[in-house]
Specification:
The protein has nine helices and twelve strands. The chain has helices at residues 2-16, 19-26, 30-44, 60-88, 100-117, 169-175, 222-230, 240-248, 277-301; strands spanning 49-51, 56-58, 92-97, 121-126, 141-145, 154-167, 189-190, 197-203, 208-214, 235-239, 253-255, 260-270. The strands form two sheets. Strands 3, 4, 5, 6, 7, 8, 9, 10, 11 and 12 form a ten-stranded mixed β-sheet that branches. It has a two-stranded antiparallel sheet with strand order 1-2. The protein starts with a helix and ends with a helix.
């Protein structure tokens, strides 16, 4: 790498027709430029420049070396320019693993906007519930909900989903509306667990409460929990961004408004920090737009 840098510096000296102008062009002391060119000549074993008090001239070996080095340096500059263009308008196939319900309910419009903004990118999305292996499988990024468990991956937090309690107006008319978290023990609660009995932890500005709740349904799909809640099957604790449309159209109503559940973090997971432009842009786009979109959803969900 040092040799390549010195080759580029040699080309700059020849083009500037002197050490002083070359030093100014690269932002380096004149003495450093002179020393590095001398070291390059010593490494090659041939004199490349004739030096006088007024100017420099290429030796025969220097002329041959300059012609070769100039092509290499020009190619390197072109490569950097092309990479810069890719960064501005990235191309290629973006392979991503996405949470099924969050992608369908919430990410879809953002993905559509991203696709319109970057027409050079095509997409290969995996929406299966499994956690893909970013090391052995050809995925650029995985969007995951909840705290990451794999410390070998690079996690970039995109958002926090605020969770609240919701039920349909008809369910509340039939079963009554709870006035305190303890009342949930007497209600049908739609849980996101594998056990028959769940413990929900809720918070307000002053305290926390743990309530053992039961449900006829045990589900692993946020989308299905949301749907069953809107079909009068019980009380659900869900991210407010997910239910904003249902709340806005009256299918669900927020209950116990002073209480909330633990927020659910959303992360972009990658195998490495060194990402291609298409992946960088996708992660940056989601991070930027999720905050704005969630702020709008909160306004609807809290009405």
């Amino acid at each position: 790498m040092e040799l390549l840098n010195d080759m580029a510096l040699f080309v700059e000296v020849v083009r500037a027709r002197g050490f002083r102008l070359a030093a100014e062009a690269v932002g380096m002391p004149n003495s450093t430029v002179s020393r590095r060119i001398s070291a390059l000549e010593k490494a090659i074993g041939l004199r490349l420049l004739h030096r006088t008090t007024r100017k420099i001239e290429l030796t025969e070996a220097g002329q041959v070396y300059f012609e070769r080095c100039k092509r290499i340096v020009d190619e390197a500059k072109l490569a950097h320019e092309q990479l810069g263009e890719m960064l501005a308008q990235p191309t290629g196939v973006l392979r991503a693993s996405l949470p099924v319900d969050f992608a369908n309910i919430y990410l879809a419009p953002l993905i559509a906007e991203f696709a319109r903004r970057y027409p050079g990118i095509s997409f290969d999305f995996d929406l299966t519930p499994r956690l893909v292996d970013l090391v052995s499988e050809p995925f650029d990024v995985a969007i995951r909900m909840g705290k990451p468990s794999d410390s070998n991956l690079v996690a970039r937090q995109l958002a926090n989903l605020s969770c609240h309690l919701y039920a349909s107006p008809r369910y509340l008319d039939q079963s009554g509306e709870p006035s305190h978290p303890a009342d949930l023990a007497r209600h049908e609660c739609l849980g996101f667990r594998s056990a028959r009995t769940n413990v929900w932890t809720l918070y307000n500005a002053m305290e926390s409460a743990e309530v053992a709740v039961t449900s006829r349904f045990q589900l692993n799909s946020i989308g299905l929990i949301r749907r069953l809640a809107s079909l009068d099957q019980g009380i659900a604790i869900l991210p407010e961004e997910i239910v904003a449309e249902d709340v806005g159209e009256g299918r669900l109503r927020r209950i116990l408004p002073e209480w909330q559940g633990s927020p659910i973090p959303v992360y972009a997971m990658t195998e490495t920090r060194l990402l291609p432009a298409k992946t960088q842009r996708f992660i940056e786009f989601l991070r930027e737009h999720l905050e704005h979109k969630m702020a709008g959803a909160r306004g609807v969900a809290q009405r």
